[in-house]
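chain below, 176 aa
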Amino acid sequence: MFVNGLDKEGAGFDAALETCRTQFECTPVPMVLPVHDGSGFNSVVDVLEHALIRSRSTLPSVERVAVPPDMEPAAQHARKQLIEAVAESDEGLLNRYLEQGDLPQEQLIQGLRNDILTRQFLPVYAGSALHNVGTWSLPSCLLLRSGQSSILRQGAILNPDYYVSAKEVWRSRFQD
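prediction:
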């Protein structure tokens, strides 16, 4: 799901998540955190990749940088919640998480994919389609759901150098 319009005054990602919790039969899982709602909205924190993604309607690409210190606690909390939710849905992942306190990225992605396909989780993304903020996360979701997680791990969507390869995978997999 994509929560759109966070560039508008009065928009609220938390309220949208709460609506998802009450309206859907699966658990909404935030995959991004909006940095600012309203007129200053220009970036999201990717929870899975633990990176700030900044974009604008005037640019065809994104800027990927470290999570700012003021967003770090929220980003770490959201990632921990994501890892715990994925681990709780699979006994093997839960044991690994309890032993190590974390999950390797590849296992996290695979567990998340399984939970999405079995409709235990609803991945929730956020942004502003009008201003091209947060929209770069959507192809990542499609790759995750389609099983192309190796491309996701390579940063295919957020790295313009990989964009052509991701586009080719999409064509070969879905346009035949």
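Residues 2-137 form a domain with the Rossmann fold fold (CATH 3.40.50.300). The CA atoms of residues 50 and 76 lie 8 Å apart.
thats it, cya
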